[in-house]
Structures are given as structure tokens and as C-alpha cells.
Amino acid sequence: MATDNPVESLQEEATCPVCLEYFTEPVTLECGHNFCRACITQCWEGSDTAASCPQCRETVQQRNLRANRQLANVVEIAKLLSLQAAKGARGDGVCERHQETLKLFCEEDQTPICVVCDRSRAHRAHTVVPIEEAAQEYKEKIQAHLRTLREEREKLLGFKEAVEKRSQEQKIVSEFQRLRQFLEEQERLLLAQLDKLDEEIVKIQNENVSKLSEQISHLSERISDMEGKCQKPASEFLQVRLSEKHSRSPHRKKRCEGQLHVVVARSEVQLDHVNVTLDPDTAHAILILSEDWKSVRWGDMRQRLQDNPERFDSDPCVLGCEGFTSGRHCWEVEVGGGRFWAVGVARESVRRKGEMNCNPNGGIWAVRRWWGQFRALTSPVTPLPLSWVPSRIRVCLDCDQGQVTFINAGDGAPIFTFPPAAFSRERIRPWLQVEKPISLSPPGIM
């Protein structure tokens, strides 16, 4: 309390914090604070936000305005004590009518009286007690009311804490439910993706098994045929070989060599041996093409050519005129003894201007010799034995499988096969990077 005077303490407890007057029709909010009904209603009137306590600013329900009758009684007592104190101050404890000391208290009229007033007709039948005794009695009543109010306030604070705790628990439960729902949804999505991936894997496995079975069957037939020939007598066996040798035409020989190449390169069907020519519109200005567009060499100086969008302007490269989007195709490149060259294929969209990214990420699949190094242009590059460097390279392109294979055209030995790529039906064209003369041809020619 701000003062040790019980009367002043009672007056403070009976005063509305809004109008600063005695409570009129006091009501209690959920937070435990008390206001006049008219004052709190006026505070909330016209507010767009949620109702809150003017004293502690806690959000409350406008409907939960509970009348506080005990506080109303305390207010009446405070008013009487204030009146008595005012009268005592004016008359210094002396009866205004009889000028006698106010020593008694009339309980019926609730006012201090003197001895003469006690004997008068107005108070003769009333219950009268000494003023000190009456004051003590009312103080005890006030203290009892104060204890009751404090207990009720503590009870309301306990209810408030319980409600806040339940609200917090509900928020936590709601958040866990939301997280569980999210995780379950993610689990369903991942399981669906796994199922789809399993189906694709099974499909690829079945296709590979089918292809391998076909190859095994073909090889088994060849083995059986050759074993049968080996079982023949020597004279008959030599006659068969001689007959085959004389009857085999150059065209038949080339076709058999092509079939042998297919087995070595692990292709399942006959490759299309294409006749490749070079595209002069893409050739770097330092490169010189032959009249038939079949070979290219490094020139002595840059030519004054039109700088069209298709032309390479940084690296000495050139593309083939032909482009492929499906099927299996092969051609051969004569590199001779050159120490600076690269052979392969490139996407139609390969970068022509500025620095190039010579690997599959840049749209190029190729092998390169640079001084004493022989490499496959992967990312990072894959070193290859320098002993594998051929003078003639066969380039095999499988558009359907997204695969590029390089073979030594001299002995049919495989050099390197790039991992399958997604060409996405984009045109794939022959690609060369040269320093010495290089020429192109289908397999078996030259």
C-alpha cells in the first residue's frame, strides 16, 4: 500500500483506475483487475482490435464481465468512512447540533453521534455503540473483504496461468501434427519416386538381358559353325577356306569387316557407314578445307572470311555438314602422325564464339592428342596410353543410346567409350580440331 492509514488504503482499493472515482457497479476482468462497468465499456467502445485490460494490456473476452458485489460493499464502507473523516475534520470530532464530542456510533443511521443525540427521540430506539468499537468493527470487516478480494485475485491468476499453459500445449501438439503430416507427405513422394525408379531399372535390366541374350545366341551360332568346320578332314577344310577366299568379293569383305567392328564396339545392330563432309561455314579462319570438303589443314595465316554466327572464332575447329538425331552411324578420320588434333562429335548448339568447354558439359565428345598426351575429353579428362594413338580413328555414334565410341580403325581395338548421354533429339555433328592435315571417310575407304 502507498500509505499506512487504513482509511486511505481502503479508498485506494475502492477507486476505479479509469475514472479515479469510487467504483460504480464494479466488474472484474479475467486478469483480476476491477473497473466500473461504464468505464470499461467506454474504453472498448469503437475499438477495431481485440479487447484488452487498460491496466495490464492482457487480451480478454468482452463478454466475461463479472459483477463484483463484495467490492461494491467495500466501496460503500469507504464512502462512509470518508464522510466521517470529512465531518471529523470540519468539526474536530464535535457534534454540529449539540457541540458535544462524538463518542458514539448509531448503527441504524451509520453515523457518529454525541451523548445528547443518543438520548434524543431520533436515536433513542437505535443501537448505539462506542465510536472506537464501531470503527474497529468496520476495520475488521474491511480487512475481511480485502482478504477475500486478494484470494479471488490469486484464484483468477491461477486460472489464467492454467489457460496459458493449456494454450501453449495445444500449440506444441498442433505444430507436431503439422510436422508429422509434412513428413508423411514427403515419405509418400519419395516412395513414389523410388517405385518409378525401380520400374525404370527393371526395364533397363530387361532390355540389357534381351540384348545380351541376342548377342550370346549370335556368338553361339558362330562358335557352332566354326567348331563344325574344325571337325572336317584337312583336305575338305582347306578346300572350304580356299573357296571362301576366292568367292569373297571386296564388297563382301567390307561388309564382314563391318560386322566384326560391330561386335568389338558392342553395338547390337549394323552401323550406318556415312560419308562425312566438312561445313566451310563453321571452319575457323585459320583452317583451309579441300575442294571436296573431305580434308582440312592448318593455314599459314588467317583467311578473311565472313564472321557468321556458325563459324568458330577461338579454337581451330570445324563441324561436319551431316547431323544425326537417331540411329547408329560411323565414319573414319585419318590423323596420320599429327601431334595436335582432336576428333569427335558435337551438339548443333555447341558454342562457336569465345572460349570453348571441350567436354560433354560443353556439348563435345572427343579424344585429343596434344604433344605427348593422349586423352579422352571427359570432365575431368581421362588419360589414355600414348601407345593407343592410331593413325586412323573410327568414330561410332549411337543417337538412340546417347553413346559415342572411338576405335582404332587399323586393328579394330576399342580406344574409349563415353558414358551414355541425353542427346534429347538434338542434331549431333562430326567435330574436328586440327593443326596438321586431317581427312574424313566412311569405314573401309582410303
From TrEMBL:
InterPro entries: B30.2/SPRY, B30.2/SPRY_sf, Butyrophylin_SPRY, ConA-like_dom_sf, PRY, SPRY_dom, TRIM/RBCC, Znf_B-box
Keywords: Coiled coil, Metal-binding, Zinc, Zinc-finger
Xref: Pfam families: PRY (PF13765), SPRY (PF00622), zf-B_box (PF00643), zf-C3HC4_4 (PF15227)
Coiled-coil positions: 180-229
Record's keyword annotation contains Coiled coil: yes
Organism this protein belongs to: Gopherus evgoodei
Annotated GO MF terms: zinc ion binding
Residue ranges of every copy of the B box-type domain listed in the record: 90-131
Domain RING-type as annotated: residue spans: 16-57
Segments forming domain B30.2/SPRY: 256-446
PROSITE patterns named in the record: B302_SPRY, ZF_BBOX, ZF_RING_1, ZF_RING_2
CDD domains (UniProt xref): Bbox2_TRIM7-like, RING-HC_TRIM7-like_C-IV, SPRY_PRY_TRIM7_like
Protein name, as recorded: Zinc finger protein RFP-like
